[in-house]
């Protein structure tokens, strides 16, 4: 289900948080989600005419080197000791998103849509395909043909998915609370792919499937802001949404 069309809030406020530690961005997301959920709970006690629309946000950021392990992930997929992580300047975080282990770091465009899916479609599978589609279209803008894997259980966006050695260019991992989403996607632009050697990425045998980036595929170093703006446009189009605020860097202060 979703709200009646007249009550759906289709505008999305876009915030670019710049470089931010993973745990700080996670707390920022949770604060926004808690605010949306509080509005939804309060609306249940209000007459229909007095109910407040719920906001939607699209957060962008970049993280310092970090490995994150999803709630369904296997700790053995981290291949580095605590001492090695410290020497390499990489942190490790257990998180509450879906999926297994992945890497975040410089040169990656990380997107965290904080959406009330009752404003759109209350279908998590459809939502994941929506994120993938926006990234697929963005890859196409740079001459990279990407698509989904047909094998069940392999989310994300892949280059040459039907080849003997598919390469993942964007990973997805989300969580949903009362139909409000958090976490999202990591899109490799100019990422140092060697850091993926410290893990079994997404729990997938690296001898069977690999990782890649826009730079790896094209030899060009795409401008982060340009990629961000293109991806935003594609995501808005796929969702049938509008932008509620200009895409611009914002303070890392507590979210409103």
Could you describe the 3D structure shown?
The chain is an alpha/beta fold and 256 residues long. Helices cover 27% and strands 25% of the residues. The strands form 2 sheets. Strands 1, 2, 6, 7, 8, 9, 10, 11 and 12 form a 9-stranded mixed β-sheet that branches. A 3-stranded mixed β-sheet has the order 4-3-5, with no helix packed on it. Helix 2 links the parallel strand 3 and strand 4 (91-94). Helix 3 (124-141) packs across helix 5. The longest helix has 22 residues, at 22-43. It is globular, with a radius of gyration of 18 Å.
Query: Considering DSSP H and I runs of 4 or more, what fraction of the residues is helical?
Result: 25-40%
Low-confidence stretches: none
- Mean pLDDT, as a whole number? 92
Give the N-to-C terminal Cα separation: 28 Å
Spell out the helices and strands N to C. EHEEHEEEHEEEEEHHE
Query: Helix- and strand-based class?
Result: alpha/beta
- The total beta strand count reads 12
The major sheet is characterized as: 9 strands, mixed
Number of helices: 5
Shape: globular
Strand portion: 25-35%
Rg computed from alpha carbons, rounded to a whole number of angstroms: 18 Å
Lay out the secondary structure.
Blueprint: E1 11-19, H1 22-43, E2 57-62, E3 66-69, H2 82-88, E4 91-94, E5 101-104, E6 108-114, H3 124-141, E7 146-147, E8 157-159, E9 167-177, E10 180-188, E11 210-211, H4 214-218, H5 224-239, E12 242-245
Parallel strand pairs: 1-2, 1-12, 3-4, 9-11
Antiparallel strand pairs: 2-6, 3-5, 6-10, 7-8, 8-9, 9-10
Helix pairs in contact: 3-5
